[in-house]
Design goal:
The protein is α+β, with helices and mostly antiparallel strands. It has three domains: about 40 residues, no CATH class; about 110 residues, no CATH class; about 70 residues, no CATH class. Helices cover about 45% and strands about 20% of the residues. The protein has a five-stranded mixed sheet. Strands 1-2-3 form a three-stranded antiparallel sheet, covered by helices on one side. β1 and β2 form a beta hairpin. Keywords: Membrane, Signal, Transmembrane, Transmembrane helix.
């Protein structure tokens, strides 16, 4: 608000009749320049810098430098697709105990569920997620988790084709995500529960939508994911007689 007032005041000074025209013009131009510079800074697009001392964030609602000592965890996470379409990854920050970063936490750490602040939507930057992850791993150390990279390493899923009368995308996405996370950082109970959910969906048949994922492709992926979850013999059921 103040930068805009400065600009308007400068314009008003220029419009006023005055005998000291040179002085008035100099003051008006200075006020306009100052207000314009501050206003431009306020309207500048999202900026994000990573360095040895911490993170510098400039975006609506959060404009500050966050030292590493105030960061408990950083997670590069991939939200579930929206109607089968990819959603840009996001960077989540879990503040250290007693630290308030800025906006209230709107996300959760995917592993332990701790409240997290969304720092960055990677759809707003030119850097690829792999590049951002590499720099964060370098400077943040063990504070950083590439959640989506960890999921893909546990079980890679190809792009699923969309078509008419396919399996409902949100149902399939949740099943696959649950299985990936059980493999990536879950224990025996999580793997067994994910395997049970897949088997139940296979028995009932995933929900069909007017437009959804290719059925044969999904069937193959769910079968492979179920096999991966059962690969550890400790997750297998006891045989029934």
């Amino acid at each position: 608000m103040l930068p805009l007032v400065c600009v308007l005041a400068g314009v008003f000074l220029l419009a006023l009749p005055s005998q000291a025209a040179v002085l008035r013009t100099a003051v008006a131009v200075g006020v306009i320049a100052l207000g314009g510079a501050v206003l431009l800074s306020a309207l500048r697009p999202f900026r994000f810098a990573i360095g040895p001392d911490g993170l510098t964030v400039r975006r609506p609602g959060l404009r500050r430098t966050i030292p590493w000592t105030q960061v408990d965890a950083l997670v590069l996470d991939q939200p579930l697709p929206h109607e089968g379409r990819p959603v840009p990854p996001r960077l989540l920050l879990v503040p250290a105990a007693g630290v308030t970063v800025g906006p209230p936490p709107a996300g959760r750490h995917p592993v332990d569920g701790r409240p997290a602040v969304e720092l960055l939507d990677l759809g707003q930057v030119r850097d690829r997620p792999e590049e951002v992850a590499a720099v964060l791993a370098r400077f943040a150390g063990d504070r950083f988790l590439d959640a989506d990279g960890t999921r893909r390493a546990a079980f890679a899923v190809p792009d699923l084709a969309l078509g008419l009368r396919g399996y409902r995308t949100d149902v399939v996405d949740r099943l696959v995500r649950r299985g990936q996370e059980a493999l990536a950082w879950g224990g025996v109970p999580q793997r067994q529960a994910a395997r049970d959910a897949i088997e139940q969906a296979q028995a009932a048949g995933p929900v069909v939508a007017q437009r959804g994922y290719d059925r044969r492709q999904v069937d193959e992926i769910l079968a492979a994911l179920g096999d991966a979850l059962a690969d550890d013999r400790t997750t297998d059921r006891e045989p029934t007689l």
